[in-house]
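Page 37, continued from 36.
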């Protein structure tokens, strides 16, 4: 440094004089110019203080790094986590500025004033419950601004796992099947008795599973085919069932049936093939297209249905995304607000 740079701690900002502009802002894009001086956030000041780039005074007394860190932690909720992420990204060679929701990160080779930010960053503690809407709000803002949203989850050992979160437009290539027949609701599944109809539905729509030539359908598959008039349905006593009565019965068997059916229907209507995701710990595994039972590809997506007021636990979220990645699929969370919406979360290597 050409001369000693001293800042004053005022509230949750550090205010520096005009000399800091050339040394800190113009060379490293720290802080924001303000009133002919420079204003730093607490995390920026901690980073610079730790590197002896600045000194910080509070009520006329100089604060060392420990004293400043403890003071900053008491003034800004989540300061410790944001500092860990800020330091990590800076040391990876990125220019980072405070912004919504927590930081703006510029692409390598870019900087403020030269190029737009590439990522908005949301910092999360491993122990912090994360409501779906607290992800979706910055996801939408990032999408509107043509940015990516980075979730930076800090664990108890201050290691960081990075994810990208974005809204996903779902669509497939599967043609509809119009030929079905009479089916019966048994214990917790539906059986289509006609062997020829069973074969057509399975081979051309990849519905159900043939058992002895007769198709066994899941509850959501049955509701979808019933709704479209592809099958007619009776209970074990032979009583006819419409969609409303079947859904009421299905909800007694599967408490979240209504939500799952809404998502299932939306994906089938978008020409996707939707099958149970039980063996992956999710509601559905989803294919863009299946040419036939003998040509089943790897599914592209794992889709888990959540309520609009769902609260994620970061360890659970991490397990789901890691599992999807390990089996070469994308992890999608589906929820219903004004319509069915899809949130894709995947691992990110900055």
């Amino acid at each position: 440094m050409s001369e000693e740079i001293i800042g004053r701690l005022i509230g949750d900002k550090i205010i520096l004089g005009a000399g800091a502009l050339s040394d800190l802002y113009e060379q490293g894009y720290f802080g924001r110019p303000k009133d002919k001086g420079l204003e730093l956030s607490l995390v920026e000041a901690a980073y610079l203080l730790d590197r002896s780039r600045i000194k910080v005074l509070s009520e006329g007394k100089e604060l060392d790094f420990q004293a400043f860190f403890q003071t900053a932690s008491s003034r800004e909720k989540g300061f410790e986590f944001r500092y860990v992420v800020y330091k990590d990204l800076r040391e990876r060679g990125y220019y980072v500025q405070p912004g919504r929701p927590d930081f703006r990160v510029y692409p390598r080779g870019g900087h403020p004033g030269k190029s737009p930010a590439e990522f908005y960053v949301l910092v999360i503690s491993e122990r912090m419950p994360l409501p779906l809407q607290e992800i979706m709000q910055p996801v939408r803002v990032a999408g509107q601004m043509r940015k990516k949203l980075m979730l930076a989850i800090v664990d108890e050992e201050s290691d960081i796992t990075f994810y990208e979160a974005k809204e996903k437009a779902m669509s497939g290539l599967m043609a509809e099947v119009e030929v079905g027949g009479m089916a019966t609701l048994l214990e917790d599944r539906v059986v289509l008795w006609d062997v020829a109809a069973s074969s057509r539905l399975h081979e051309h729509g990849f519905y159900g599973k043939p058992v002895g030539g007769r198709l066994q359908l899941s509850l959501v598959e049955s509701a979808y085919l019933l709704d479209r008039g592809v099958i007619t349905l009776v209970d074990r006593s032979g009583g006819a069932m419409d969609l409303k009565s079947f859904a009421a019965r299905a909800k007694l068997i599967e408490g979240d049936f209504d939500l799952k059916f809404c998502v299932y229907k939306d994906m089938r209507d978008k020409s996707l093939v939707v099958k149970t995701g039980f063996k992956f710990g999710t509601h559905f595994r989803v294919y863009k297209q299946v040419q036939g039972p003998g040509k089943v590809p790897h599914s592209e997506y794992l889709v888990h249905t959540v309520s609009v007021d769902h609260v994620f636990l970061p360890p659970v979220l991490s397990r789901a995304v890691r599992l999807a990645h390990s089996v070469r699929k994308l992890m999608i969370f589906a929820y219903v607000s004004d319509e069915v919406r899809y949130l894709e979360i995947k691992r990110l290597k900055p």
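The domain at 1-75 is CATH 3.40.1170.20 (MutS, DNA mismatch repair protein, domain I). Flag for discussion at group meeting. The chain has a mean pLDDT of 94.
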